[in-house]
Amino acid sequence: MADSLRIGIAGLGTVGASLVRILQQRSNELAITCGRAIEIIAVSARDRSRDRGIDLTGITWFDTPEQLASEAEIDVFVELVGGASGQAENAVRAALARGLHVVTANKALLAKHGVELATIAEDKGALLNFEAAVAGGIPVIKALRESLTGNHVSRIYGIMNGTCNYILTKMEKEGLSFEACLKEAQRLGYAEADPAFDIEGNDTAHKLAILTTLAFGNKISADDIYLEGITNISSEDIQAAAELGYRIKLLGVAQVTESGIEQRVHPTMVPLDSVIAQVDGVTNAVAIESDILGELLMVGPGAGGNATASAVLGDIADIAKSRPGAQQVPVLGRPAKSLTEYRRAKMKSHEGGYFIRLTVKDQAGVFASIATRMADNNISLESIVQRQRVHVEGAPQTIILVTHATMEDAIRKAVKAIKNEKYLVSEPQVIRIERT
Amino acid sequence: MADSLRIGIAGLGTVGASLVRILQQRSNELAITCGRAIEIIAVSARDRSRDRGIDLTGITWFDTPEQLASEAEIDVFVELVGGASGQAENAVRAALARGLHVVTANKALLAKHGVELATIAEDKGALLNFEAAVAGGIPVIKALRESLTGNHVSRIYGIMNGTCNYILTKMEKEGLSFEACLKEAQRLGYAEADPAFDIEGNDTAHKLAILTTLAFGNKISADDIYLEGITNISSEDIQAAAELGYRIKLLGVAQVTESGIEQRVHPTMVPLDSVIAQVDGVTNAVAIESDILGELLMVGPGAGGNATASAVLGDIADIAKSRPGAQQVPVLGRPAKSLTEYRRAKMKSHEGGYFIRLTVKDQAGVFASIATRMADNNISLESIVQRQRVHVEGAPQTIILVTHATMEDAIRKAVKAIKNEKYLVSEPQVIRIERT
Ligand SMILES: NC(=O)c1ccc[n+]([C@@H]2O[C@H](COP(=O)([O-])OP(=O)(O)OC[C@H]3O[C@@H](n4cnc5c(N)ncnc54)[C@H](OP(=O)(O)O)[C@@H]3O)[C@@H](O)[C@H]2O)c1
Ligand SMILES: NC(=O)c1ccc[n+]([C@@H]2O[C@H](COP(=O)([O-])OP(=O)(O)OC[C@H]3O[C@@H](n4cnc5c(N)ncnc54)[C@H](OP(=O)(O)O)[C@@H]3O)[C@@H](O)[C@H]2O)c1
């Protein structure tokens, strides 16, 4: 049997502690499967005295991830600290500078410094694996980086934030408000005390940025992503969606258009009978459309200590199974130096169907006026419905429109024109419909 | 750039011709992604004069796959001939004997000789890749062999035959008979002229046998699989399923039980609102349940020249990206020599819910008799419904039972006892319900 693969793990939190536990419990089988033992040589975290329920006897403790990455006698540095900069970044740079292979679950770091780190890794002949960084346990990085080699991807989209999907699922199933469901998600540990990063869509955007690069070969460009979170989604929207045969999901979508690559994160209506509409709770899903393979959809756990550690372990095992000196698999699908500049498609040029919910004063001519404003902008309607659940003379009415595929620009102009008419009682709600 | 990867392709049919086309059209990009060119050196098929719509100029023609595998100056032998023995087998053996890497899409060959071929490959330090052999373009082999390393799989199940899924989908959507849908599948080229291999479940069994080995580490044992095809499924079953909140799919299922590994292929009721129930037409799906990762589901095209060629290309690219001398990834997930004997669980001990449809004479006491026979065998019922769409005095009645989880043995005994009562007008229909 070959020499053991020596690894150092920085970060012993939710993911790191799970990983240590699994590596220790399954060390014999892993040695058989991988053809050599995987040995934890060194670890690092902030608080040395904290009881993590794992046995660290015989493992060298380093006070900082950077020290571990710089000094430990290891083959692979595993970064499970988190954060786009600081210790995580410094340590990964230090490891790559020594030519060590790196495994990380850190989407923030990759979304910010991915191209630079990939370049260093490739120059050094080191591997940089990051399956856990996007959609947790779902092997979407491997699918894009390896299985789809040679394919031209046209669109990639997915449910990549468990917190948002949990909230939307619960709002629908139990008819509760956004706020109530967010509180429940926090109580169950699905949402952070400060949930903004999840519910505003930033977390999804980081993951989408990484997938976009793997799919289309452009440099990572997380700041260019159009962003709308789910804080604005009401029970009324969810119910109206269901009545129209849709379900609302927070999707990250990247697609090739004539004017460039569209990258967007927003609440989206997907057909009720589509596979992705069935993806409930904290589960994630990613769909990839490509020209040779066709459409591939993967569904699975997007977070959690074990599911994430499983992806990290897969990355480590890939390194263990290859032999030293075997340089493989460009980090971002293509050699980092061949990645192209990101060419951004204008969101105004986005084409698709739209759901528009308007709350209007109960006055004559409103319905006709709305229909006229849509027609003025050449928007063709699939349906327009006016309703008032319980008819009360003079109370506000709800008008719901569903459009055929049209340009975002036209929608914006039409909605603006409608707003100018002064019969709206509250802000109009506009939700994009995604073909799945 | 490193030396080019020289490949020989035997079989230029649906898959082989697609592969040649893609390799030629995308040669520049592939060279960039893989870090070296992929060069087709040699090909082989039966009929040299046949126009395949591909340009074979400059490529050496061999009259037999075996000759190609034995003599061509290549690094990788790609087998796209098909068949469990004969030329395909001989050629793969010849290639491995020379230490060549092999890529194949041949499930029949692997289901029969997989363990032996894996052993030879590992002894020779050669790679044997076969992503396309199961569920076409869906990267399920990679998921099991690489991503899930370290996980203990408890169950794997899937829709792995497009012909059957097409027929079942069409029967439901259009209310047509099995025969009518099979004819349509043949007209569209989804089903062979002799469709037995697909509709009797044998094709699914081959694939399941391969997945079982990857999931559980046992030797491949295709002959031990319990088999029921879809020829017996009627529109009435499909409609009754829908009314009860189920959809009928032909599933291959392998799971660990106390008495061994259950491997079975049969029509199955899955909950209407499950993700897998939404998998329509020729699309395939595979679900994997494991202890660290949780549940992973992959959905995609299970056949077709391009989708299958995409998987073959991924396998070739994996070899191109690794450097010579790099031995990796045990062929069947674990080193072939460490695979265990297959321990078969008795089908009689299968536990699950059952759907039973009985057509009975319109006579007093039948309903009570059926309920009593079930109770005699300790089968607890979720529902029992008697109905006659249009009531005609004396015409046969339909009785539909759905059981709670129970033993197959008890069901068989109860059904036998009911048959002995002589009030059945036709054979009872029994369909297993699968928890998804
Ligand atoms: N949790 C998930 O479900 C999940 C899913 C996908 C990806 N990820 C990614 O996985 C990574 C780890 O996530 P996690 O949930 O395991 O985080 P966590 O529970 O907060 O653990 C972070 C670990 O890093 C250590 N650490 C933090 N800052 C440090 C510093 N400046 N110096 C040294 N050590 C430091 C902490 O030490 P102490 O323990 O001493 O405080 C802790 O052990 C992140 O990049 C995250 O985005 C997580
Ligand atoms: N088609 C799919 O969608 C699909 C999906 C998954 C896996 N697969 C697998 O892929 C493999 C190829 O399938 P396919 O659909 O491409 O089959 P195919 O269209 O029937 O092509 C078979 C090729 O092999 C050649 N061939 C057959 N017998 C031969 C022999 N004795 N000596 C030399 N050449 C011989 C044929 O030559 P001629 O052209 O001269 O007759 C033909 O080029 C099979 O193992 C199949 O199970 C196929």
TrEMBL record, chains A, B:
Annotated residues for binding of NADP(+): 10-17
SUPFAM superfamilies: ACT-like, Glyceraldehyde-3-phosphate dehydrogenase-like, C-terminal domain, NAD(P)-binding Rossmann-fold domains
Assigned keywords, A-Z: Amino-acid biosynthesis, Methionine biosynthesis, NADP, Oxidoreductase, Threonine biosynthesis
Pfam families: ACT, Homoserine_dh, NAD_binding_3
GO molecular function, one term: NADP binding
Record-annotated active site: 207 (proton donor)
EC number: 1.1.1.3
Metabolic or biological pathway: Amino-acid biosynthesis; L-threonine biosynthesis; L-threonine from L-aspartate: step 3/5; Amino-acid biosynthesis; L-methionine biosynthesis via de novo pathway; L-homoserine from L-aspartate: step 3/3
Ligand binding (NADPH): 107
Domain ACT: 355-433
Residues annotated as binding L-homoserine: 192
Gene Ontology biological process terms in this record: methionine biosynthetic process; threonine biosynthetic process
Family membership: Belongs to the homoserine dehydrogenase family.
Record-linked PANTHER family: HOMOSERINE DEHYDROGENASE (PTHR43331:SF1)
Identification of the protein by name: Homoserine dehydrogenase
Upper lineage: Bacteria, Pseudomonadati, Pseudomonadota, Alphaproteobacteria, Hyphomicrobiales
